[in-house]
From TrEMBL:
SUPFAM superfamilies registered for this protein in UniProt: NAD(P)-binding Rossmann-fold domains
Family: Belongs to the short-chain dehydrogenases/reductases (SDR) family.
Record keywords, A-Z: NADP, Oxidoreductase
Record-level Gene Ontology MF annotations: carbonyl reductase (NADPH) activity
Encoding gene, per UniProt annotation: LOC106113085
Protein name: Carbonyl reductase [NADPH] 3-like
Ranges in a coiled coil: none
């Protein structure tokens, strides 16, 4: 019988590392910690070993197709397939209004990389497997205020080409300096991150449809404001606390939970409700930074 295998991308620190820790404690199989930087990945492995946890390691840069292909070939030859995939790798910048090159990098890491993972790693997911895309409150549809894109992204006939055109629309507007801040919530702050995560949440719905016949569950979630490097260690949750819901989704959630957008506390959120206040609010985060003297 083949070994069960779980993979967490971007997991040498933060939420990803905490998910690896939880899987090592509860998952009856092999757990892979992956990272872009080999030294940081191996250091994380050493720290976990001191805690009596023994995940395996493989280098993985989700933005590098050759790196993803190498990992795919390794998994396929060694195990034939995998059972759990947590797409956690991501990046953000502290500037609310980055330049075009930074916007491109944010899109490539937080969304485009998922397309490579979908192409190369998804075929390895065994029947009845589970995929979790770590999104954000920036990934809720309420982050988009442009009526045309609200309608198109919420259409039941949505396809991957629509999502790509949404990405292209944003990047072209940034490059030509025609981006309108009122097209995105909160005066267009952190627009690239919002666009990338909305695209990821929308893609999750389509990925679920594609994998439905194999009873593979694909969900996305907002992990909450977590005290990690990405948030400048400001937040309501520790990384271990934030890992509770992701672990539930890949280990304990019913098979019927598919294509959902889940809040950090485990509640199911209507992703299509563009009038809700689920969108990320910069002012709340700035207040927390001020209170912390940052």
């Amino acid at each position: 019988m083949s070994s069960k295998v779980a993979v967490v991308t971007g997991s040498n620190k933060g939420i990803g590392l905490s998910i690896v820790k939880g899987l090592c404690k509860r998952f009856t199989g092999i757990v892979y910690l992956t990272s872009r930087d080999i030294e940081r990945g191996n250091n994380a492995i050493k720290d976990l070993r001191k805690q009596g946890l023994f995940p395996r390691y493989h280098q993985l840069d989700v933005t590098d197709r050759e790196s993803v292909l190498k990992f795919k070939n390794y998994l396929q030859s060694k195990y034939g397939g995998i059972d759990i995939l947590v797409n956690n790798a991501g990046v953000a910048v502290s500037e609310a209004y980055p330049n075009f090159e930074e916007n491109q990098m944010i899109i490539d890491t937080n969304y485009k990389s998922i397309l490579t993972i979908q192409e190369l790693i998804f075929p390895l997911i065994r029947d009845n497997g589970r995929i979790l895309n770590i999104s954000s409150d920036c990934g809720h549809l309420s982050n988009i205020k442009n009526k045309y894109w609200i309608d198109r992204l919420s259409s039941r006939s949505l396809n991957m080409e629509d999502i790509q055109e949404f990405i292209d629309w944003f990047l072209k507007a940034c490059e030509s300096n025609t981006f309108r801040r009122d097209d995105i919530a909160d005066d267009g702050s952190f627009a690239a991150y919002r666009v990338a995560k909305v695209a990821l949440s929308a893609a999750t719905i389509l990925q679920q449809k594609e994998l439905q016949t194999r009873n593979i569950s694909v969900n996305s979630m907002h992990p909450g404001l977590v005290r990690t490097d990405m948030s400048r260690h400001i937040g309501f949750l520790s990384a271990d606390e934030a890992a509770v819901t992701p672990l539930h989704l890949v280990l304990d959630a019913p098979d019927s939970l598919k294509g959902a957008y889940v809040w950090f506390d485990g509640k199911l959120i209507d992703w299509y409700n563009y009038n809700s206040d689920c969108y990320f609010k910069r002012s709340s985060y700035l207040q927390l930074l001020a209170e912390a003297g940052l």
